[in-house]
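User: My collaborator sent over this chain with a note saying "see what the structure looks like." That's all I know about it. Can you take a look?
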Amino acid sequence: MAQRRVLMVVTNHDQITPEHPTGLWLSEFTEPYILFREAGYDVTVASLRGGAAPIDPRSLPESAGDAVALAIKQLEATARLSDVDTSQFDAIFLPGGHGTMYDLPASEHLGRILVSFYESDRVIAAVCHGPAGLLGATLADGTPLVKGKRVTGFTNEEERAAGFDTLMPFLLEDRLRELGAVYVGAPMWSDHVEQDGRLITGQNPQSSTSAAKAVIEALK
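Assistant: Without extra context I'll predict from the sequence alone. Here is the result:
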């Protein structure tokens, strides 16, 4: 069997307000990245603009082992998404972080890529705020990709507990429901993954490893 290829798409957006820097939530990237590499996958890390990806400072570990440090290194020079031949990948994975709430939903290019993965029966996965990237994906008949799909993502309750509910451009749970998704939430900070066919979503940072393992299982 040919080596599996996974495309990880991360945010370029680096602030909620000047007082609240943001970006990628680090563990939502590093945990899946390490698991994909351990599974023998070829992993490409991209962002909409390319270049260095911002990391939410609240998610930085006090110390990092070799595997985490190697994963972080991949964020220093991400590929520009428009330069990537996405037809060559078996799965796409969208890590979260509050930055994703700003740039990923607005990207028509990302939306088209996600639809191409869906229409070719490839794996689509996202964790925490990463499912915000799914919001801009619309099928040819005008139907939102998530309509009728069982999904999860960062809950309204978790957003309130984090203190960012009034600062977000929208609440992810609400927007997924508005687009017709069958949203399934678990108690705050639960390790919770939903899978609907080859669409895999994790609720929060605690779900990152489980979401990645679901991708690995789906690619077997």
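A starting point for your reply to your collaborator: Residues 5-218 form a domain with the Rossmann fold fold (CATH 3.40.50.880).
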